[in-house]
Amino acid sequence: MTITDFIATGSLIIAVAAFIYSYATNTKKYELTSQLRYEIIKWYSTTIEILIRLRLEAENNFISPELRRDLLSKLSSQIEIGRFYFPNIDKGDNFGYDKPYAYKGYRNLLLDFLVYSYRLFEGNDYQNYLTHSDFLQRHFTSNLFETIDPHTFLKETKKHTNKTFSSALIYEDFIKTDPEKLSFYLKKQ
Length: 189
Fold this sequence. Notes:
Layout: H1 3-60, H2 65-85, H3 109-122, H4 130-148, H5 150-161, H6 171-175, H7 179-188
């Protein structure tokens, strides 16, 4: 074996090791990202359930003081938990410097939607602001949607697992489907 053969073999080994390392670290990064995403969606699920319940109860009638207190305390807890996922923003102007560490700076916009929802339902005239409640909820969801970025996540999931969880069909496309093709699905149920 010549020196050239040793160099070529060494280069091949280094290239294979670099490829394996790159694959392993990308997979670990994907796993960590997936775990954080799961935790945030779990937090979101609990939070949105509280917001919707507050609004639906208010739309149907006045919320009993006990139920309102219970839902508001749960919403307040979700805001506090949310600080770990969406910490305050430091703009370098020392805003809130005298507050405890988790409260220094400016509250994240995503949490502001929840704080304003809390304040809305805390007031005695909350039924006058149900449209505002819906507005805040939609912006809360949209802001989190943008943060989580499901489109990119689904592409990454397909890349790592070769699974597709979303099709490009919408309802209008579905109802245009030939009924004979749909009968296969109906027979399975």
